[in-house]
């Protein structure tokens, strides 16, 4: 900096502080006693200012700060564990505040900016959101091991006639709820009764104590349970569709890293099998993949 602007800035600082910082003569400039007393604090302020800028850069790059994220309540435990481990491994400086929320609650949180990123189910209203790839997860049928349909390798939906259906409450994801029932009816299955349940223990009790079935991905069913059987549905007519979502224009590096981690974990923990399309299906509002 040239001498005149520097002198002007020092004089302006002296006026603001009300303290003379330098003694000036035609030959030299020396620091005053007051300037000496303020020097250490001035250096500390400069250091803190640089630290603030460095922290801001880390937050912008997704390497520090707080990320408020959400996952659906019935996501498989292995998948949740994989997401947490992978995210913390890749983003050590980010504090992850993880919530267990339904799609409806996530959409409300994203709209109010109480959430930074979530994992939602489609179909739903995605106005104002940006989405990651939509992942299709095949649903099979979960039923008592001695049910007649359990003897089939793949169960047609028509074979479930006469069974009650255990399904999550409609308020949690109305469009998904209605889409499942519509698809069932289109393929010849109309439940005698829809029972609302979500917790694994409650659902298990309903499956074992009444003529009822539930739909679930293969990886969500505990294979060691001898009383229940999971079977694929013939033709794979039912799927869950997930994608990471964040408010439009607010996808910082940490939110995008979480979205990538969720996508990778869902794909990695999905059980292979069945005649699934080998290539992605490109659908609006983002690419859609079978997992």
Describe this structure in words.
The structure is a single chain. By secondary structure, the protein is an alpha/beta fold. It is 36% helix and 25% strand. It contains seven helices and 15 strands. Strands 3, 4, 5, 6, 7, 13, 14 and 15 form an eight-stranded mixed sheet that branches. Residues 271-291 have low confidence and may be disordered.
By DSSP, the count of extended strands is 15
State the fourth-level CATH superfamily of the largest domain.
Periplasmic binding protein-like II
Write down the secondary-structure element order: HEEHEHEHEEEEEHEHEEEHEE
The value of Rg in angstroms is 29 Å
- What's the overall geometry? rod-shaped
Tell me the CATH topology of the largest domain. Answer: D-Maltodextrin-Binding Protein, domain 2
* Assembly state: single chain
Helix proportion: 25-40%
Mean pLDDT, as a whole number? Answer: 84
| Strand-residue proportion | 25-35%
- What's the structural domain tally? 3
Q: What is the CA-CA span between the terminal residues?
A: 60 Å
The largest pleated sheet is described as: 8 strands, mixed
Structural category is alpha/beta
Supply the number of helical segments: 7
**CATH architecture name of the largest domain:** 3-Layer(aba) Sandwich
CATH class assignment of the largest domain: Alpha Beta
- Low-pLDDT segments, ≥5 res: 271-291
GO molecular function, one term: DNA-binding transcription factor activity
Pfam families: HTH_1 (PF00126), LysR_substrate (PF03466)
Family: Belongs to the LysR transcriptional regulatory family.
Protein name: LysR family transcriptional regulator
């Amino acid at each position: 900096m040239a001498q005149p602007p520097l002198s002007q800035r020092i004089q302006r600082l002296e006026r603001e502080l009300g303290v003379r910082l330098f003694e000036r003569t035609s030959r030299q400039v020396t620091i005053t006693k007051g300037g000496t007393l303020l020097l250490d604090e001035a250096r500390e302020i400069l250091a803190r200012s640089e630290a603030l800028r460095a922290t801001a850069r880390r937050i912008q790059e997704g390497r520090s700060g707080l990320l408020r994220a959400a996952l659906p309540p019935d996501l498989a435990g292995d998948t949740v564990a994989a997401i947490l481990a992978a995210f913390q491994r890749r983003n050590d400086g980010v504090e992850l505040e993880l919530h267990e929320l339904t799609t409806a609650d996530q959409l409300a949180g994203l709209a109010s900016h109480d959430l930074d990123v979530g994992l939602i189910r489609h179909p739903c209203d995605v106005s104002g959101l940006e989405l990651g790839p939509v992942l299709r997860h095949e649903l099979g049928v979960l039923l008592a091991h001695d049910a007649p349909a359990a003897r089939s390798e793949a169960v047609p939906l028509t074979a479930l006639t006469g069974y009650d259906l255990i399904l999550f409450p409609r308020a949690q994801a109305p469009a998904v709820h209605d889409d499942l029932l519509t698809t069932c009816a289109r393929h010849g299955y109309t439940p005698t009764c829809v029972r609302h349940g979500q917790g694994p223990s409650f659902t298990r009790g309903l499956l074992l104590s009444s003529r009822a079935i539930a739909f679930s991905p293969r990886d969500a069913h505990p294979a060691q349970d001898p009383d229940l059987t999971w079977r694929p549905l013939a033709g794979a007519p039912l799927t869950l569709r997930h994608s990471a979502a964040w408010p439009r224009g607010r996808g910082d590096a940490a939110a995008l890293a979480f979205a990538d981690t969720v996508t990778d974990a869902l794909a990695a923990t999905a059980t292979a099998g069945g005649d699934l399309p080998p290539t992605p299906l490109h659908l609006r509002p983002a690419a859609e993949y079978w997992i």
